[in-house]
Amino acid sequence: MFPNRVLNKTGSSILSFVALLVLTVAGCSETNTNEAKNSVKSLKVQETTSSQTGKTKIVTTFLPMYIFTKAVTGDAADVEILVPPGTEVHEYQATPNNVKAIATANVLVKNGLGLEEFLENTVKNAQNPKLAQIDASKNIKPLNQISPVEKTAKEEHKHAEGNPHVWLDPVLAKQQVINIRDGLIVADPANKATYEANAANYIKQLESLNNEFEQTLKKTPNCTFVTFHDAYPYLAQRYKLKQLAVVEIPEDQLTPVDVKNAVNAVKKYKIKALFSEPGVDNKLLTSLSKDLNLTLRPLDSLETGKTDPQYYFEAMKANLQTLETACK
Ligand SMILES: [Zn+2]
Question: Quick check: pTM over 0.90?
Answer without folding.
Answer: no
